[in-house]
Amino acid sequence: MRFRDLKVIKKLSSPFVSIICGSLWLAALNPSEAKGKEKDWITLENCQLIPNKANDGDSFHVRASDTEYLVRLYFVDAPETASVGPERLIEQAKYFGLSVPEVIEIGRDAKRFVESRLSEPFTVVTRLAGGLGRSKVQRIYGFVRTKEGDLGEQLVANGFARIHGTTATAPGGSISADEREKLAGLESEAKRRKVGGWGVAGQTPNGIGASPDTFRSISGTPTSSSLAAATIPGEVKNRPKEKTQLGNIDVNTATEKELTTVPGIGHVMAARIIAARPFRSADDLKKVSGIGDKKYAQIRPYFQ
What we know:
Blueprint: H1 3-11, H2 14-28, H3 31-37, E1 42-49, E2 59-64, E3 67-73, E4 76-77, H4 86-96, H5 100-117, E5 122-130, E6 138-146, E7 149-150, H6 151-157, E8 162-163, H7 176-193, H8 212-216, H9 224-229, H10 256-259, H11 267-276, H12 293-299
Helix pairs in contact: 4-5, 5-11
């Protein structure tokens, strides 16, 4: 290089030189390597959940400082909360071995579970990678950390989400295969405990025994009658409930198994009660979705 060329480069501003060098460096990488190195992980601290009717179990509006994001969780997919997107709902129902109406209820429970977990400030770890979907707000993928741990893992552990969707090498270098293996272990335990979507009566595991034609009967936006027609066959009778004494159950510490011993409380309702904790007293049970005056009068005597 000639001396006069060095003088020209020296006159260029340092930011401009940095841009040129960075571009040359990325160009030297193969495409997959470049894509992975475009953005480093950043941590958004003290995030707050923004109420929005579009929020669900795996995608929700978040405020970090003065910026609003729509955060989509890596690795997990919670059921839809309404009878829209029939193909996706059918796929989710088959995964849990449920009917479409049942899986929608699990999706609503997942939304309530997330609202409970995100009622206090939380952290989002993200590369600001754009998430799919239409939104005026910046939509990003991320890992959400609460005081109870990783939110995606909590959803799977409680039977509120399936292992599905966009993956990433987690912050700290843990490869995606390790995270999927961890989630698979949590899911197996959720199945064993029969919590969330794995504890619904009449369940046919993983859709076994369901006719494909049953699911194809839904087209366009399902109506209430078409959703009912999508029920998976092979329903089984509920086992008799274990007897429980009146006034013996602590609403804030009872396990799902203990809650389902109460006449009128099934696995889905038990999951809703757990997601709504903590309660000031058992009188707050009337605030849980699905517990009306009649149901409340039936179950309240069993709680302290």
